[in-house]
Amino acid sequence: MQRYPWHHHEFTTQLAPVDPFVRSRLRVKRRDQAKLTAPSSSSSKLAGFPLPASASPMALQTLNPHPRHAVPLPRRHAPQPVIHLPPRRRLAGVARPRAVAVAVSEAGRRWPPAEGGEEGKETDLATLGNLCVDVVLSVPQLPPAPREEREAYMERLAASPPDQKFWEAGGNCNLAFAAARLGLCCSTLGHVGEEIYGKFLLDVLEAEGIRVVGMLDNSNASACRHAYETLLCWVLVDPFQRHGFCSRADFSDEPAFSWIRKLPAETKTAIHHSKILFCNGYAFDELFPDVISSAIDCAIVAGTAVFFDPGPRGKSLLHGTLDEQRALEHSLRLSDVLLLTSDEAESLTNMRNPIQAGQELLKRGIRTKWVVIKMGSKGSIMVTKSAVSCAPSFMIDVVDTVGCGDSFTAAIAFGFLHNLPAVSTLTLANAVGAATATGCGAGRNVAHLDKVLQLLRESNINDDSTTWSELLDGSSLCCEVSVLSKSAVNGFSDRLGHVPICSVVSNLLSMFEAVSERSTVQA
Fold first, then answer.
1. Which fold has domain 23-515?
2. CA distance 46 to 351
3. DSSP 357-396
4. With 50 as the cut, is the pLDDT of residue 14 above it?
5. By C-alpha distance, which of 53, 182, 180, 114 is closest to 422?
6. Full-prediction pTM beyond 0.85?
7. What is the top-level taxon of the source organism (predicted)?
């Protein structure tokens, strides 16, 4: 059984439909300048999600089988004014659909909200930085290796923008879309330029009901025009399906938005009005380390919970400049929730067992409440000071893994805000990640709620006891361990407490059932 299937597509030298490649592919290019060759195979059954702990390069997938035309994007709801935003950055926020609001209210009734300064906070989740437009093209040959030639190649691409049907919102937009479709009120904090790509990104976010708070600081008028442009990720595929990447960040030793020297007042206000601030390692490619640290400090002062996902950048930050090392440690120690793959957790702790790695990160943390470890096709784990919870993945037919990790994080945020039991939170997160994997591409193609509910109802999980028994045997645990399973007793170790999936799913469905057909977040 192949665990991570890809669909094979033939490529021509014409423009290819867009695929919002994960930003990690861009980072690989920045760090290693390596050409990635994607294997091909036919589709097969994958033992669920979240995102693979160590994803391999994948062939370009067709995101838009029916090409989009450059027409105005429809708004799903009537806009509401967003306070505290400069005129340029004022975008429509939207009220939750009534059915979603009912489900969220039901969650609050069943499980009281988590502790924290949530009074007066109208935004559930705010993301910091990592806003970009992904442009995926099929080209006759990959960019040349010499730095100067690659830069000229990129400038030629940017000079003649391809049709909008090849564009997609990337980066933290994936997380915001997935969270909004669960009924959370979301905003994005980052820089979006005035050019056509920026306008496209703003229109897409507005159409999805995502508020945008800009980080433009007019005090630095000396920065060149290119420094203020929307960040683009050019994903290039040659006829042999080899990938190359171009971004202006490739040609600078400083962050892409180096003109942002301090956290703007509007950004601070938005953080104060948010219940969760999410930051990942890719923010370090756009912002100076002290700007990121100041955003975390601002959140702590405001009583806003901090979520941090170091991602593939975590390892390089660990061995980066002194400022990067300090900011990474600051983020790891002061975050309320840490999200990592098992490989990333090992790289930060030198502990191969993910449970032990999670416990080590908890020990190092000052405010850390949850450490969530993504185990790829095996499932996911949540480590707290008093317990360890495990949830096997859902068995699905995989179409595309892009955006699964972002979708997974959206559900973790939902569970945190509504104080759901750990196993319930992981189950929902696995389902949302798996729902995204059954579609094609990320951006606006991330999971819709109806697909999440379908997977929950089917409850087809990978109920293999081997993984959890091995992890338990390889760790010295003295706390409570709970595992989601199809039955109360199914041959697992006596050291594990079994949580029947039927009871977990019943509670989750009762929260969201009203949304299935009436919710306007569906496609």
1. UDP-N-acetylmuramoyl-L-alanine:D-glutamate ligase (3.40.1190)
2. 27
3. HHHHHHHH-SS--EEEEE-GGGEEEEE-SSEEEEEEPBPE
4. no
5. 114
6. no
7. Eukaryota
